Amino acid sequence: MTALIQHPGYEEERLRRVEEQLPCREVQAGMLLSLMGQPQQYSYPSVFIYGHRASGKSHVMQVLLKELELPHATVSCVECVSVALLFEQVLLSFFGCDAASLLPRSPSLSDFVRIYRQQCSQSPAKQTRYIVMEKAELLRDADANLLPALLRLQEMVEDNVTVILLSEIVWDKFRPNTGCFEPLLLHFPDYSKGELHQILSQDRHPSYSAEFYSSYINILLGVFYSVCRDLRELRHLAALNFSKFCEPLAEGKVKETDTHKLWRNIEPHLKKAMQTVYLREVSSLQWEQTQQMEERECGALRGLSAHTHVELPYYSKFLLIAAYLASYNPARTDKRFFLKHHGKIRKTNFLKKNEKTSNHLLGPKPFPLDRLLAIFYSVVDSRVAPTASIFSQISSLVTLQLLTQVSHDDQLDAPKYKCAVSMDFICAISRTVNFDIVKYLYDFL
């Protein structure tokens, strides 16, 4: 098979190792080698490489420089918060500690150029030296003369040195208004779906066949490719969810070829993982522990509506609890539940012929606003002033369709509402505020 990366200035064995480490980036690596030329030749003063995150820019540069043993200094513009650290890193990589120690405490660009030229006269370059600037977009916030100077550093220091800028944004957003030396531009496109599949399939687990892991990657990309094309994030997701994919296989329920059954097992797990793409709110270990805890939990909350998982403000929860009690308790039982000194009242004294049926079977009854607020102030722990915030939260509950307004909109003096949530839902809400709602329901006396 003919090698995709070829260059007359380098050994074929080294180029073969480079090609093995750069899958799907052979074209960009070959073009970069053409721009760099042979080691002893003068290279172009500056090269600007741009592309989206995780498109292989830094990886390609590091593999080329290390495998071909080219003298280089890699500088992260995130770590080098000042130009002093940047100058020190370059001098340290090329000339050692003695050269870096010659920099003054607050070096200027002219100090750096002067020391660099002194060191070059003592140890001239036998090969092209490369300065790789990662996250180069941060250079736009540095001194106005730093970026133009780096672009023509070869001319200033009179040395065979090339500055390579790696960035996620295009050169048009870099170019200073005053003009500067124009670098050579090289674009790294995003990986296609097939290229991502090829790269991720190389990380297969040794306990499983290549075909099995390839089918897993195909399923993973089918779910995540539309929302995430970041190779690092996809690699993290692949490692995180593979154990869940293999569970039916380890338990002996399916075979490696039963792709459909494996997909049905992993589908809900991948949908949960899609909600936290890029966020990394928890570590991989914490994510796995959370999923295991959810599986061990009692199924009491399973099957509830999606409203169960809606986060409500603290007082809105008590307003909803009060609305549920007002809908399902007869109005004349409020004295029994919410007055401290109500005396002894038996349930049999309340029963009439039409009250022998459970209120939960009859459905929610409408209630006026003043009764809702009276129950709310009784059940809430702290004293709450009847402010506009409380009334706005009632309107929000109506908007969320947790309460239903049954009176006309023009009836402003005494609006009436009904509670529109189920028993399971209100029990779940009550548990979040440590309120035992069953003790306050007339049907459960």
Describe what you observe in this structure.
With 445 residues, this protein is α/β, with parallel strands linked by helices. 46% of the residues lie in helices and 8% in strands. The strands form two sheets. It has a five-stranded parallel β-sheet with strand order 2-3-4-1-5, with helices on both faces. The longest helix is centred in the middle third of the chain and has 20 residues, at 231-250. It is elongated and about 100 Å long.
Helix and strand arrangement:
Elements: H1 12-21, H2 26-36, E1 46-50, H3 57-67, E2 72-76, H4 83-95, H5 97-100, H6 109-122, E3 129-134, H7 146-151, H8 153-157, E4 161-167, E5 184-187, H9 193-201, H10 210-224, H11 231-250, H12 259-274, H13 284-296, H14 314-328, H15 334-338, H16 359-362, E6 367-368, H17 369-379, H18 388-399, E7 403-405, E8 416-419, H19 423-432
Parallel strand pairs: 1-4, 1-5, 2-3, 3-4
Antiparallel strand pairs: 6-8, 7-8
